Amino acid sequence: MADLAELALEARGLSAGYGRVQVLRDVNLTVRPGEVVALLGPNGAGKTTLLRTLAGYLRPAGGEVLLFGASCGRMPVYKRCRQGVSFMGEERHVFPGLTVRQSLRLVRAQGEQAALFPALADRARHRGALLSGGEQQMLALTLALARKPRLLLIDELSLGLAPLVRERLLDTVRTTADTGVGVLVVEQNARSVLDRADRAYVMRRGEVVEERPADHWRADLDGLAALYLS
Ligand SMILES: Nc1ncnc2c1ncn2[C@@H]1O[C@H](COP(=O)(O)OP(=O)(O)O)[C@@H](O)[C@H]1O
Ligand SMILES: [Mg+2]
């Protein structure tokens, strides 16, 4: 079981950007083991920039990131992976030239792990590049989980995918968290993600403007919409 006293992830006063362009300002955020935390906010709010900074692809200009209770400073991406961080970026992370079966074998996904999505079983001999968007994302999530992460960072889980696929992916995210994995997920469909999340942060213009339990947001979707629109 995960140590619930220890945070899976903490950002403290984090700032980051691109060259001289500052995007993130003083971002404070936590994810506990076993928690699904939604990261919401309009386009351009800085969600992708934040995830990329947490995953180690972008260097913070200020503040710090702590993984599993320890400051990770300038720790490179691969070391964060070794610590148990799995990052699914906006582009679909599948092996385009490998079949589903080969991909699963490569990451040593077996049994239940390999069979997370029954829809993929029918596609065992299809190459990653030839799968539908939904199948690619189901495979990407399967591959990310095969590494047995302790922290999962997901950008735009269901962008462009059918509602049924989105629900299926989100259900898997929830059951994964229930095994003790911390999850930070960006998802455009606020209602769907709030149905499975414990808490949600809303970002605007590079800042976290509000954090509340998911059920508070669900009861105040108008208030949430106002944050997007104002
Ligand atoms: N590679 C980049 N170079 C410069 N500015 C960028 C780059 N990527 C994103 N930005 C800017 O950073 C801001 C936040 O973008 P992003 O993190 O992609 O937001 P979100 O994921 O919430 O839509 C935007 O103003 C965007 O124009
Ligand atoms: Mg984005």
From TrEMBL:
GO terms for molecular function: ATP binding; ATP hydrolysis activity; branched-chain amino acid transmembrane transporter activity. The keyword Lipoprotein does not apply. Belongs to the ABC transporter superfamily. This is ABC transporter ATP-binding protein. The lineage of its organism: Bacteria, Bacillati, Actinomycetota, Actinomycetes, Frankiales. It comes from Frankia nepalensis. It comes from the Bacteria. Residues 9-230 form the ABC transporter domain. SUPFAM superfamilies: P-loop containing nucleoside triphosphate hydrolases.
